[in-house]
Structures are given as C-alpha cells and as structure tokens.
Amino acid sequence: MTRLRCCALVAAMLAGGFAGGWLAAWLADPGPAWAQASPGPAERLAVRQLVLLDEQGRTRGQLGMIQGQPQLIILDEQGPARLVLGLAGPEDNDFWILSVLDANRKTRFKTAAKADGGGSMVGVLDHNGTARFTIGYTDQGTGGLVMNDAQGRRRFTIGMPAHAGYSIHIQDEQGNDLWAAPGQPHPQAAPQTRSEP
Length: 197
Fold this sequence. Notes:
1 helix
C-alpha cells in the first residue's frame, strides 16, 4: 500500500468515526428539555416528620409528631432546641405550649393554654430554669400573679379567687406573710350566665 493510499484510508476512518459519533449523538438527543405544565399544588402531603437542614447539613428545624404530639422545633447552629411550639402532655391534660430556650437548654419563657380551654399561663424563668414570674387564669374565674426568688420560693402573690375578691401577699424566705391585704368580693364577681344566641 502506497503512502498516499495509507493516508487516505486513515483520513476516511477518522471522517467516518466523527460522522458516526455525530449521527449517534443527534439520533439519541431528545432535543431541548421543556418544563412540563404543573397540574397545580398537591392537595395533601402525608409525612410523619419534616426536617429542615442548613447548608452544612445540620438540623435546624423539625415539624412532626414528636413524642406522640404535633410540634414545631427550631434549633440553633450547635443543635439545642431554642423554640418549641405545639401540643404537649398526656391526652387527658393536653396543653398548647410555646417555649423559648437559651443556649444552655434552659427554658426562659413559656406560655401554655389548656387544649380544652380550661386556662392559660405565662412564665418567665431565670438562667437556672427557676420560674421567677408567672401569671395565669382559669375558665372558672380564678387567676393570679406570682413572683418567686432565685430559690423558687414564693415572695409576692396577687390572687383572684373565683367570686371572692382578691388578695395580695408579700412573703419571707419561709413563706410567712410580711404583709397581706385580703380583699373584699367585687360586686361584678358573681357568676354570670351566658345567653344563647
């Protein structure tokens, strides 16, 4: 085989290889991808838990059934929960709660409302988790405000017993009254009946 024929054969083989590759790619290519028309939002998404991850893959939020109750939990970068919102408690004594926690996992603010509408409360806690300020009210008409010292001992109380006036107490470390002012029943404190619409 002459040198000219050898070069022509190599050139033909290269041209055939390029042409065959191009033809195969052209035949296999389905063309530009066009977005399919969405049928609309899903009517229902059933999951037991949704987990939100940040860019580093750390869990920063959870929404789901946690200890058998629906809850939303927000976590900080180090992992501890910083906010909890949801239903808590055994089924016969459920409370809707909102708790804010510090970096040491101590609850610093908490509000709770009985799921059956039987009452609600708000509490402010110190860095040790001791309730320092609590205010609450029940559907029976009772309520109160309590301030505790760092050891959790009641030091100041305003109480509103149902239909019985009010009382104010300032107490020492042993719980003895330093000053108290029992109140008189308020004329509007009598039970009220609801009129049906």
